[in-house]
């Protein structure tokens, strides 16, 4: 019986799961497609759902910043995602189906934001067209994409319950990593990460800078970002920190882009 045919390469005969293989191939620098990119994720629940009083000034701020900085705007879903998840869970929908339903909501917000940013060349990007981004930026466009990762029906099972673990915060981080972005900024309705929810406990303290390990050790009941991000960030090659700012306060996004002290930084 003839032996197995092998193409000559450095992974010849590998199972791709052997532990020592990872170390042997480490040290090869990953291509950064857009190293000066700022991925800015706009929360649906924290910003878009507030309507014109919050959204329109935010759009103007982002539009003006885009004239000087390369940006990818990522949208969340907000209250409508919570509604569809509530219905879906009540009806026993699998996690993968819930992920499909949630993606449709954040996509609606992406369409809205794209139109609001049309004055600054806002342009809709679909997940499958993400690699068109460098060309779009060279053309002076301001790309907008929805943040739900395209796992869809292949969404990973949640550790607890049925809610999809990879949602729009996580999607923004994954896009920032694959594009080799400079910044991954989450725009929320609070000043950053607090020791407790400041809307419930006004005495909660703002955490300005913290490592992933320190944050996981705190084992907090609630967080201002998706927990899945804390699992992924230590394994990232290009993105080493996440910035959280209050989008209800004008100028915060620009300060985060410029590296000024604002909000919270969560780092490896």
Automatic annotation (TrEMBL):
Family as reported in the entry's similarity comment: Belongs to the UMP kinase family.
Q: In which pathway does it act?
A: Pyrimidine metabolism; CTP biosynthesis via de novo pathway; UDP from UMP (UMPK route): step 1/1
Keyword Zinc-finger found:
no
Q: Name one Pfam family in it.
A: AA_kinase
Any one GO BP annotation for this protein = UDP biosynthetic process
Look up the EC number in the record and give it. 2.7.4.22
Record's keyword terms, sorted: ATP-binding, Kinase, Nucleotide-binding, Pyrimidine biosynthesis, Transferase
Enumerate the SUPFAM superfamilies for this protein.
Answer: Carbamate kinase-like
Note the coiled coil stretches, chain numbering: none
Q: Which GO terms describe its cellular component?
A: cytoplasm
User: The Aspartate/glutamate/uridylate kinase domain covers which part of the protein?
Assistant: 37-234
One function term, GO molecular function aspect: molybdenum ion binding
Protein name (record): UMP kinase
